[in-house]
Amino acid sequence: MDYRDTPEEAKFRLELREWFKHNIPANWRDITDGEGLRALAKSWHKALYADGYMGLNWPKEYGGQGLSPSFDAILNDEAGRAEAPRLPGMVNYLGRAIFTYGTEEQKLLFLPTLLSGEVQWCQGFSEPGAGSDLASLRTRADLQGDHYVVNGQKMWTSGALQADWCLLLARTDSGAAKHKGISCLLTPLDAPGITVNPIVLHSGEPETAEVFFDDVHIPVTQRIGEPGAGWRIAMTTVSYERGASDTGSISVLRRQLRELEQIAHQKGLLNDLNTRMKLARAHVDIEALSLNVAQQLSSRLAGRDPGPEGSVGKLLWSKAAQYTMHVALDVLGADALTGNAPRWLAEYFTSRPVSVYGGSSQIQKNILARMLDMPR
Ligand SMILES: Cc1cc2nc3c(=O)[nH]c(=O)nc-3n(C[C@H](O)[C@H](O)[C@H](O)COP(=O)(O)OP(=O)(O)OC[C@H]3O[C@@H](n4cnc5c(N)ncnc54)[C@H](O)[C@@H]3O)c2cc1C
Predict the structure, then answer these.
(1) Whose CA is nearest to atom 43 of ligand 1?
(2) Among 91, 92, 356, residue to substitute to test ligand 1 (most atoms within 8 Å of Cβ)
(3) pLDDT band for position 178 (50/70/90)?
């Protein structure tokens, strides 16, 4: 492993730093209402795309830049450092499914607008009763002539309220073994028979949703991969979702920790050994995550796709994000609850589902146990 930037990477980093200086929307943190946040996400996505910062690692023929995965990691790192709005991360892992398994026609039709932000997507995998045990999903897609008829329900579909399309998993063969009877359909959310109901999170915003399908007709040409390939497609998608470039929020964690150290200093808490130990442990957790990300990145640069070992990164990310926020509440004390520091309380709540979405911590441990050949 060599953690240093190559000359091209160093040049890109400097360019990016300059770009962030001039392009981060002013006062974006003051936007708190749902409509404003959605407009911000869309315009931020478009600004990044316009200047060539989306799809850095995608092939050029589908609108990408054809660069190595380290450029994505630099983008994540610098975005966190510059306190930029969140990057549109879903694009990378949903796009990966389409350009790994889609036909040439599907790739040319769907990838450019996914990348540019013109068309918004969401991931319709989880269902009530099929989150960790995703292979038990019950939404059905029955083949009738040249289209599938979809019936069922998805749950926790983030961004579904504003999305135009959904990468949908549905059971197309109920006679097959449960992992083998699933297919993946590119589904327009304005198709007749689809109802999207918001789920409001702690922020007060409907960040995620439940989606109902009632006799929804989807042309067979919108299936990606072979019938029954849905499980493999889902695993590719989540391995990129759990992967190194999505845990690039390290610079955000580092910044939060620096701020907490300053607050602890101002409150005279740094004389307390217990507080110093907690801050040190958060620091160690963040550095362990950072080294794991560097290791995963080296492995991708050596040409290996992310695999089950990405579960280590997901576990370290959950641990670092949640522990840092735990320390934040300890350092802020009552201020976190009295409204003197509402931002920290919101960030604390934002850290809670990190250990659930993209596969819970317990499931990551199960995956690793299987890799290590441990007893069931
Ligand atoms: C904010 C948020 C956004 C999300 N966004 C999306 C999205 O966009 N698209 C999407 O498809 N899904 C999304 N999800 C769903 C997410 O992937 C699931 O919540 C997650 O996989 C867990 O599934 P579950 O909620 O059904 O919990 P369950 O699977 O019911 O798990 C409940 C608890 O039991 C534990 N558990 C379950 N099985 C085992 C086992 N075998 N061994 C040990 N422990 C076990 C789990 O770790 C967990 O603690 C989102 C979730 C959240 C919270």
Answers:
(1) 362
(2) 356
(3) very high
- pLDDT, one tens digit per residue, over 95-149 is 999 989 999 999 999 999 999 999 999 999 999 999 999 999 999 999 999 999 9
Residue 241 CB contacts under 8 Å (≥ 6 apart), including other chains: 93, 358
Helix (H/G/I), strand (E/B), else coil: 227: coil
Angle at 113 between CA 201 and CA 107, to 5 degrees: 110
Which pair of structure tokens corresponds to residue 376? 């069931």
Residue nearest atom 45 of ligand 1, based on CA coordinates = 362
Tell me how long the chain is: 376
Confidence grade of residue 63 (pLDDT, cut at 50, 70, 90)? confident
Q: Where are the domains of the chain?
A: 7-88, 121-225, 242-371
Class of domain 121-225: mainly beta
The residues pairing with 136 across neighbouring beta strands, listed in sequence order, are none
What CATH architecture is 7-88? Orthogonal Bundle (1.10)
Mutation choice for ligand 1 from 86, 121, 132, 136, CB with most ligand atoms inside 8 A: 132
Structure tokens at 105: 């026609």
Active site residues: 241
Beta strands in 200-325 (DSSP E): 208-219, 223-224
Integer angstrom CA distances of residue 86 from 31, 224, 272: 13, 29, 35
Please, are residues 251 and 80 in contact by the beta-carbon 8 Å criterion?
Answer: yes
What b/e readout covers 235-248, taking b as 16+ CB neighbours within 10 angstroms?
ebbbbbbbbbbbbb
Assigned CATH topology for domain 242-371: Butyryl-CoA Dehydrogenase, subunit A; domain 3 (1.20.140)
Q: Provide the 3-class DSSP secondary structure of residue 258.
A: helix
Rounded distance, CA 85 to CA 82, Å? 9
Locate the ligand 1 atom nearest the alpha carbon of residue 126 and give its number: 11
Write the DSSP string, 5-60: PPHHHHHHHHHHHHHHHHHSPTTGGG--SHHHHHHHHHHHHHHHHHTT-SSTTS-G
